[in-house]
Amino acid sequence: SVFVAVPAALVLLAGLGGMAGEATFGAVTRITTGAETVRPPFLTARLIEDGPARRYLAEHCADDSPFTLCRYPVAGDVTAEIFLWDEQRPQGGFKALPVPDAVAVADEQYRFAFAVARAYPVETVVGLGRSIVSLVTNFSMEEFRPEFVAEKMDPHILFEAVPADTPLPWVLRIMPMLTTVLVLAALMTLPWVIGSGLPTSCQQTVYVVLGALVMNDVVCACLSGPFARYNMRGIWALILVSLVCALHWHRSRNGASSQSGA
Prior knowledge:
Shape: elongated
Helix content: 55-70%
């Protein structure tokens, strides 16, 4: 069906464009610096926080495992951010490692993730699914605090953005509620938009936006975490496209009424 083929092609084109951009960035970095780019092991960090990767390190590293991370067991429950950026062992598992080992952990992350998923498929799927759902429903504004709180930040405490008792400005407190209402309203209009006989272009736009939002949340939740900034940067597109389709329908209806009256 054309309703599926065109949006799918656009999403595929966007994905290919992203891959081309990554390849170009790596090539330019290699040419200008003589060094390969190192991507932090975000997927490994997500599996560490969710639990199955910690379990794998505890239960499988004695089996002559080929993974570098097996030489650096992670202590207790740590977040993905701590695992990636803490420079102290044993909680740090990337930046805390010697550079050659950190590069190896980054290079091995997809093979490591596959091994973890094969060993604990249910636990892995449940953990990633929980992150995806948390991101899809996260409309918080905590990550969009204005600069006036910067003077209250403590740069010496890892990952502490602002003190926990610092209230959000009233505008940022009502934005999550307003966003939730608008998103629910937009979702409620989708069946009507798809089945109301609107132009193909309008329906295709709905499919493209939905596909892009789903892909954004799945990729960001799995490779980073359920941080509101990933969701909030694009959720407005769903609200906007629903509004545009509704206005188009209203104009078409008024036009048809005028012609019948004439």
